[in-house]
Amino acid sequence: MGKVRVIITNKQKAVKIPTGLRMLVRRCCTAVLKMENFKESAEISVTFVDNKQIKQLNKQYRSKDVETDVLSFPMGDKGEYDLDRSTGALVLGDVVISLQKAVSQARVYGHSLEREVGYLTAHSMLHLLGYDHEKGGIEKVRMREKEEQVMTQLGLPSTSSYVLDEDEE
């Protein structure tokens, strides 16, 4: 695998970023790329925002007027990505994480903020690589399995198993 460059920007003040969180995001991006046998150098942008900012982005880009936890903006299509000529890296896209939402979800699910942000990063990275869970079914299950595989590799395994709701089967 080539070099992995993760550009992290903090555009929020609602949540103090814990020590090591940025490194965890970088490790998570790298783990997903390794798992997917991504051979090239890659560049990913990760931005931390608050609930108000992510709600605005969700409305602007997805016509959904609600706050969400993470948004993915892939730069590629069917494995074809833009090339950053200055570095030779493929530009995979942008990940936007609401740290406010991550804090509240970590409380709801009973795990650490690190586990939640790692999971959201893995989830978003899979979107950047072309995975889609929106249609449900086997693709959703496959994506969940890959997310959990990465989280286990990073030492942040789930405290419960993933089970489909009846309406998702």
Topology:
Blueprint: E1 4-10, H1 21-35, E2 42-49, H2 51-62, E3 70-74, E4 82-84, E5 89-98, H3 99-109, H4 113-128, H5 137-153
Helix pairs in contact: 1-4, 1-5, 3-4, 4-5
Rounded radius of gyration (Å):
15 Å
CATH class categorisation: Alpha Beta
Helix content: 40-55%
CATH architectural type: 3-Layer(aba) Sandwich
Strand content: 15-25%
Q: Please state the average pLDDT score.
A: 91
Number of strands: 5
Annotated CATH homologous superfamily: Metalloproteases ("zincins"), catalytic domain
Named CATH topology? Collagenase (Catalytic Domain)
- State the secondary-structure class: alpha/beta
What profile does the largest beta sheet have?
Answer: 5 strands, mixed
Poorly predicted runs are 160-169
Listing every helix as H and every strand as E from the N terminus to the C terminus, the arrangement reads: EHEHEEEHHH
Can you walk me through this structure?
This protein is of the alpha/beta class and 169 residues long. The chain has one domain (4-157): 3-Layer(aba) Sandwich (Collagenase (Catalytic Domain)), CATH 3.40.390.30. It is 42% helix and 20% strand. Strand 1 (4-10), helix 1 and strand 2 form a beta-alpha-beta unit. Helix 1 runs parallel beside helix 4, helix 1 crosses helix 5 (137-153) and helix 4 packs across helix 5. It starts with a strand and ends in a 16-residue tail after the last helix. Residues 160-169 have low confidence and may be disordered.
